[in-house]
Amino acid sequence: MCINKGEAAIIAPHDTAKHDTAKKVVAARPKATKKAPIDDKVVYHARDSIRLDAANKKVYLYGDASVKYQDLELKAAYIDLSMDSNIANAHGVENKDSGKVVGKPEFHQGADVFYADVIRYNFKSKKGRINDIRTKEGEGYVFGKIVKKDSDGVYYMKNGTYTTCSEPDPHFYIMAVKLKVIPHDQIITGPAWMVIEGVPTPLAIPFGFFPMEQGRHSGILIPAYGVSASQGYYLQNGGYYLGLSDHIDVQLRGDIYTYGGWAQRDIINYNQRYQYNGNITFGYALVKQSVQGSTEYSKEGSWNLSWINQQDPKARPNSTFMAQVNAGSTNYYTNTSYNPTTFLTNTLQSNVSFSQNFQGTPFHLTASADNSENTIQHTVVLDLPVLTFSVDRIYPAKWFQSDNAVVNPNKWYNNVSFNVTTSAKNSISTTDSLLFKPQTLKQMQNGVTTTIPLSGNFRIFRYFTVTPSFNLTSTQYFQTIRKNLRDTTVVTDTVQGFQMFNTYNLNATLTTNVYSMYSLGIHRAITIRDVIYPSIGFTYQPDFSSGAYDYFQNVQDRYGNTQRYSIFQNGIYGGPSAGKQEAINLSLANNIEMKVRQHTDSGVVYKKVKLLERLSLSTSYNTVADSFKWGGISVGATTTLFKKLAVNYNGTIDPYEMNAYGENVNRLVWDNGQVGRFVNNSLTLSTTLTPGSSKQQTTQTQGQQSQTGQTNNNNSNNTSTGVQFTSPDQYFDYIQNRPAYYAPLELSQWSVTMNYSISNTVNTGINSSNSSLQGITVNMSAQVTKYWYASIYTGYDFVGHQFTSTSISAKRDMHCWELIFNTIPFGFHQDFSVEVHVKSSVLQDLKLTRQRSWEDTQQYQ
């Protein structure tokens, strides 16, 4: 019997003889009481034809044939199915025109798919024999010549290979005489060796184990090996990984050296979705250079603790807990880091804070702990705890208005407001070696300060804005100082006891904006807008060193000279200032922009150009000072040239003359027709250059594709990694049509960032001199070729006539492998490293590394 092209047939249990009545009786008489051969219906289909052989109880399927049974599906150009034995045979057919075999078998079971040349499969026992299997397991690909599949879905292969390379002829693979594949679990091999570019290598193992399970799993972290001239042979970065749960994991890593040095790094990562996430890292390193007893021998230990915690804003809208801790020995990064940015760090900052907003009230509370370490001076400043209580800005006028009243902003009293902030702090400032000593803890300083700023604003004469303010500060200390003359020396004593002082000042500022417009060019096509922001203010502050406040005292040295000092001057919030102040504050800012009228196809448009983003001048004049009434003149300017070059200038002008001893004298330089003396200047130029045509070309290409509604797959350079492949063959076809797919561009074709800075400072005093700094830093990165990426970070100190910290890195994309090169070619930390490794995380420990650290390079200097 032959079923016409395109038809399908269904065979259900107890129905195997349905299409042959003659055979039906013979098959039913002796086996009428037996269980059906299969437990579910078998659905088969063919594009060309289906032939039923009733005598032999077989079905022959031709052309895009498929057989489905439960979650199993077998596809091929040809399939024959036996009703008695439930065995299906599948293979491809030869194309008469090309001579190639097409329609090779595909076997689907759930989400698992494999491809082969010949498949013989029993649908009842779910066992099979396969020739030349090709399948994808996790990130790897498995190939086998002769394969047996058991009823549990386990594959037993003879002369099998495993690789993470997706090429039809892989660049490398692990060849095994015997290979066992447990889908989604593991791959186990017998004796195996590596083959690179078809050439067997002596890299062999007696057995292999490749885990395929998804998710976190505990296991050994394979170390890297090598040799160091200063520390001996080593194993680095090995250890154990603990995948405790979906919310926390632990890495226990360490290094060991034959000269006795060792290091450990414990990393804890935690994450609670919609709640918080972070990590804790503790490291300790014992560096031993050379052999004990030699002249080059040295031994040094160092440690570091870092903790980063972030809270999801949705977890607790009214409270936040944040932590960013970086504490440890001053030499830890110097001994362990190869990153130029890291080992040049000379300050370690830590902060842990908790803030609470009291819902429905204007009150806020923050508790924190801060730590700052200077690795050069070996000083530590520890603030623990720091408490801050604040009240939102309050408008007193609202106290006398009903809740539904409409507030008139033109009434000056509606704009008057104040807020309150109170801070309390304990602080220790000492050296790192004395931090936890008992005598250091006794030197802890503490205090409380409260600030109440009261301010408002209103308009006068329509164009002017007046902003008056009154600032009150109250500070309390539990320690003050007293100075006394003992023998011939003035000594400072710390006096325990509660003391407080109050300070205040009054300010008023008058501001306005002055606009001017200028038209230039033919038909006034260019318009320049100049905006000037003048400001004049007045500040009043009494002399808190007068006897009316009792904040200052006098002490005489052995020569009879009287010194006046504040008993609060050593407090953590400082002390009251001496001298009365009735100062006039002057400032002037300027902004210049240009609009150019242009005619386009869509009409007249205006192009806006910034000529000068900011130019500012500011100074002050103290009317009650007995000398040096004028303050320094601050100058600042910022603009962007050609939309690429950012220019920033800051300077200070001293209006007073300087004598031969480098001291200021109360005589203005203006009297000599000069503006003043520039005592410090700084100029910064920065720019980032990238190819502008690349983005424009991409946009045009996308626009053309959207207009035509289709893309040319043969010429597309799409590098999206979001494409899903169901078979290796689909991946092979994809990369042949899109050769850029497996060499993705990580950045634009090239990028150059340059920063140039120059500064000059005039040091006053008897040994007055000028100190200058001038340097440039350059950060370049480029996709040199389709497969090569390189970056360079360097700089040059024009004053010291030397290069600053320089690093060079390069990366070569070799499809399934990757080559990485890093070097610091000169300087104290010069080193280099070369590594070739497999990209896939499954074989991440398959790598070759060559490295020379900065400790080794010091041996040859």
What features would you describe in this structure?
By secondary structure, the protein is mostly beta strands. Helix content is 6%, strand content 58%. It has a 31-stranded antiparallel beta sheet that branches. Strand 22 (224-228) and strand 23 (232-242) form a beta hairpin. The longest helix has 17 residues, at 692-708. The model is unreliable at 1-36 and 693-748 (pLDDT under 50).
Key structural traits:
861 residues, mainly beta, 31-stranded antiparallel β-sheet, 55 strands, 6% helix, 58% strand, elongated
List the helices and strands and how they pair.
Layout: E1 2-3, E2 8-11, H1 21-28, E3 42-45, E4 49-53, E5 58-69, E6 72-82, E7 87-91, E8 93-94, E9 101-102, E10 106-109, E11 112-115, E12 118-122, E13 127-137, E14 140-149, E15 155-163, E16 172-182, E17 186-189, E18 192-196, E19 199-205, E20 208-211, E21 219-221, E22 224-228, E23 232-242, E24 248-257, E25 262-272, E26 276-289, E27 298-311, E28 319-328, H2 332-336, H3 340-343, E29 347-357, E30 363-374, E31 379-394, E32 417-431, H4 438-441, E33 445-455, E34 458-460, E35 464-486, E36 489-511, E37 514-520, E38 526-541, E39 552-556, E40 562-566, E41 581-600, E42 603-622, E43 633-641, E44 645-654, E45 656-658, E46 664-668, E47 677-689, H5 692-708, H6 728-737, E48 750-763, E49 769-783, E50 788-797, E51 802-803, E52 807-814, E53 817-824, E54 831-838, E55 847-852, H7 854-857
Antiparallel strand pairs: 1-4, 2-3, 3-5, 4-5, 5-6, 6-7, 6-10, 7-12, 8-9, 10-11, 11-13, 12-13, 13-14, 14-15, 15-16, 16-17, 16-18, 17-20, 18-19, 21-23, 22-23, 23-24, 24-25, 25-26, 26-27, 27-28, 28-29, 29-30, 30-31, 31-32, 32-33, 33-35, 34-35, 35-36, 36-38, 37-38, 38-41, 39-40, 41-42, 42-43, ...
